[in-house]
Structure formats: C-alpha cells, structure tokens
C-alpha cells in the first residue's frame, strides 16, 4: 500500500454513499483507561480553541470489483465495527479526566446516506474531504466513517478514522478484513477472519505498573538522543524557509525511492552485515544529513500475538541517535544505525507518558520530526493491494517540520513526505529525498554515480542543508 494525500487521490466519478455507524442501545462504563497515545491526543485537542482543532484523520481506500451488493457491504461494515472493541468505544470527560464506555456488539448498526453524484473524481474527493473532516471529531462517537463511490460495476470504498481510533498498521488490516467480510456476506458464507483481539485489554495492561528501573532506562535513552538542554529540536536538517517552530500549512508528496529489485538489493546488503532493513534506511538518511550525529524518532508497533489483527493505536515512539563517521562508507554507518535500533527496541513497551513524566527537556516543547517505516508485503491481502488500488490517505493540516513515512510494497520503496508549504521547503525536501534515493541505490550495489539534487550534483544538497552544528548534539 502506498500513502498519498486525499487531494491527490482519484476515485473516479460516481454516486457517493456514506455509511454512518449508529447504536441501538446505551453504552456501558468500561474500566479500561485511555491509552497513553489516546490521552495525549484527546487532552491536547481539548486544550485548543475550537478554531485550532484541526482534523487529524487517516483514511484507507480499496476498489471492490463486480456488481455491488449494498446490503452485503452494509453487513460487512457492521460486522467489522462489531468485531473491534475500539470502534465501539468512546470517552466522556469527567473531572478533568476521561471515562471510557463500550457498546455491546449487538448494538452496532449502519445507515447508508446518499451524498450526491459526481461527474469527476476531483469533485468526489472535495466532498469526501469535507465529510471526513466533519465525521472524525474525537469528541463525538463515532470518530470515523465509511463511504463509497459507486460505479456501474464496482466501487471505491473509503474509510476515515481520527488518529485516536487507529494507527496506520490497523488501516492496512482493515482493508483486507473488510474485503473478506464483504465477499463472505455476498456469498452467504462465514468469513475467514482471525480473532480480533482487544485494544481495550491492551490499554488496561499498558496502564499497569511498570518498574521504575524500566522507566528510568527508557528516559535515559531519550535524554541521550535529545542531548544537552540547549540542543536543537529533532528535525530533518533542511532549510524550510520559515522560522523554526512556526506552524504553517503543510503539503505532502510521494517519492519513489527504489523499485522492488533495488529494495531487495539494499536488504541483502543489510543482511550481509547482520543488520535490519530499517537500519539501512536510517543509515542512508544519516549519510544525506551532513550531521556528525544523526537523531530521529521512529514509531514502532506494540502488538503481540493476541492483538496482531486488532484495530487500535498500538504505537510507541523510540529515540534513535548515532554518530556518523566521516566519509561516505555505508557499512560503518549501517552498523551504528542497527546498534541504535537494537538499543531502543527494549523500551517500546514502556508507555510514553511514563517516560515523559521523568524528562524535563526543552526540546520536548518543540515539534519533532520522525521516520515511519512499514513493510506492507507481509499483510494477508498484500498480493491484491496494487490491483485493488489500496492506499493510505492523509488529510490536510498545519505543522512546523518535516515528517516521512516510508512504505515497502511489492512494487518497491516509496516515501510520503509532509512538509511546510513554502517554495524553499519544497526545493529542500525534493533535493534531500533525491539524495536519499541515490544513497539507497549506491548501497544496493548500483554503480551509477550519486546524483544529489535533481541532477545538479552534491553541492545542491549542501545548499539546502542547515549548518551541521545546528543539528549536532555533540
């Protein structure tokens, strides 16, 4: 699955139908607290003025082929919501806190609503954007919705969720699960879907006591990455054409980094060194950064065998920092990147709120950039993702820095980069990502000379990088 902005997606013309999820009975209080991520997301939003409560949804799309059975699709969506407790759950504000409630599966219903007929995909996307922005308010349940652009044969199904409800991994699971539920409902057969597990049980376990030693060790890892108190924020070292920290509208672009063969070559290079593929990506980014010490944050999932098919926000952020030896030799940087990942991974089950409570660092008050990596080839329906036009879709929003999602699919390696919508940032990011792709190619054994900066050589990369010492915590 590739990630693109909703504004760049074309579902084609057709009739737009939205399925709203409703409840036929009252919810019941539930003991599971909000997860660390949910608490941070929901309380930060509640502290903002209404005008500043920008949408924070993620969406997914897939094409369903053949003559549509709308009754079966409604059944599939209802079954999907009933299977996952996080989709039947919400919060009430109580005394400065959040109290969770839960609906029983039998209380879930779906109601289709006609949202108009559109003669172009652009028109349909404009309407979908407004629907998603309105329906994903985390202060209301449900903070998600489903919609489809119907054609004479088939449809494009879309689903959007506020980030408090789900992570990107869950969206990929949802695409495969809903496709199976729809096929089963159409054929009158029981669906072949795994146990959904329980995100609420995960939240309860996460809230349990974590030893002070583990929290202290995780906090120390974060402090080591952040550096001294006067260190700059953790961000991609490119000129954005605006003051650091200022919120501005963001734009998003997708960039090809390598075809499937190129990604395979990089993986073989990493494995020969006993390193993981993620470490290879981090090493390539570090070599592009010009920094003597590379720092970033990587989101990692916290699932186990019980929750591998669950919807929810199973993510923790890990601090990554390693020195970059002088020169352009890939292997020494790869070894340090891999060591940094292996050092950070034991801390992934320590909730972020417990770690941050022990940290008092100025950098935590400034926006940080991060690198997300997902290999979508391991998902059950990945072989059909390309034919079904399965995508992760992002919303328009404001921010202060650069974030990067790298996706690996059967077609290759792609980067979705979100950055401030300035001419300077656009040029800087495109040059930086071009260099990133060149290092990946060289590391994979491509003997073509590196071409940094859209064909204008290494000097172009140097021109868009901020001074190294500004980003060097040593």
UniProtKB/TrEMBL annotation:
Q: Where is this region: Disordered?
A: 23-48
Q: What is the species of this protein?
A: Streptomyces triticiradicis
**Ion transport listed as a keyword:** no
Protein name, entry field: Condensation domain-containing protein
Q: Which residues form a coiled coil?
A: none
Keyword annotations for this protein, in alphabetical order, are: Ligase
> Taking every annotated instance into account, which residue ranges of this chain make up the domain Condensation?
59-362
GO cellular component terms, A-Z: cytoplasm
- Which residue stretches does the UniProt record annotate as biased composition, category Low complexity? 23-36
Question: This protein's superkingdom?
Answer: Bacteria
Q: Name one Pfam family in it.
A: Condensation
């Amino acid at each position: 699955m590739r990630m693109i902005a909703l504004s760049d997606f074309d579902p084609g013309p057709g009739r737009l139908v939205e399925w709203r999820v409703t409840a036929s009975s009252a919810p019941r209080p539930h003991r599971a607290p909000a997860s660390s991520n949910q608490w941070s997301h929901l309380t930060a939003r509640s502290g903002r003025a209404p005008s500043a409560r920008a949408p924070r949804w993620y969406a997914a799309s897939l094409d369903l082929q053949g003559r549509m059975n709308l009754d079966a699709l409604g059944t599939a969506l209802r079954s999907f919501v009933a299977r996952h407790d996080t989709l039947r759950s919400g919060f009430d504000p109580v005394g400065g806190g959040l109290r969770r409630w839960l609906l029983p599966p039998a209380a879930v219903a779906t109601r289709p609503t006609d949202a108009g007929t559109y003669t172009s995909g652009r028109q349909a996307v404009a309407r979908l954007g407004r629907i998603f922005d309105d329906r994903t308010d985390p202060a209301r349940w449900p903070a998600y919705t489903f919609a489809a652009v119907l054609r004479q044969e088939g449809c494009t199904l879309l689903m959007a969720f506020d980030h408090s409800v789900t992570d990107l991994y869950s969206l990929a699971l949802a695409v495969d699960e809903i496709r199976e539920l729809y096929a089963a409902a159409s054929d009158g057969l029981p669906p072949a879907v795994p146990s959904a597990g329980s995100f609420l049980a995960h939240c309860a376990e996460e809230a349990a006591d974590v030893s002070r030693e583990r929290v202290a060790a995780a906090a120390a890892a974060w402090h080591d990455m952040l550096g001294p108190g006067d260190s700059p924020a953790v961000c991609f070292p490119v000129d954005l054409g605006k003051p650091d920290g200022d919120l501005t509208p963001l734009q998003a672009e997708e960039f090809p980094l390598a075809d499937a063969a190129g990604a395979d070559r990089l993986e073989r290079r990493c494995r020969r060194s006993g390193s993981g593929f993620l470490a290879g990506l981090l090493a390539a980014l570090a070599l592009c950064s010009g920094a003597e010490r590379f720092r970033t944050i990587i989101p990692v999932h916290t699932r186990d065998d019980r929750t591998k098919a669950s919807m929810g926000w199973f993510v923790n952020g890990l601090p990554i920092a390693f020195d970059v030896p002088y020169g352009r030799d890939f292997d020494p940087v790869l070894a340090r990147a891999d060591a940094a990942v292996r050092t950070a991974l034991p801390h992934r089950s320590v909730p972020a709120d417990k770690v941050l409570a022990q940290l008092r660092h100025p950098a935590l008050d400034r926006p940080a950039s991060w690198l997300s990596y997902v290999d979508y080839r391991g998902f059950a329906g990945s072989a059909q993702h390309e034919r079904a036009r399965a995508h992760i879709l992002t919303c328009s929003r404001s921010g202060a820095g650069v974030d990067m999602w790298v996706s690996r699919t059967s077609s290759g390696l792609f980067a979705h980069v979100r950055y401030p919508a300035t001419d300077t940032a656009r040029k800087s990011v495109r040059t930086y990502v071009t260099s990133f792709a060149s290092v990946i190619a060289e590391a994979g054994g491509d003997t073509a000379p590196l071409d940094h900066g859209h064909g204008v050589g290494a000097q172009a990369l140097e021109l868009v990088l901020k001074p190294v010492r500004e980003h060097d915590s040593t």
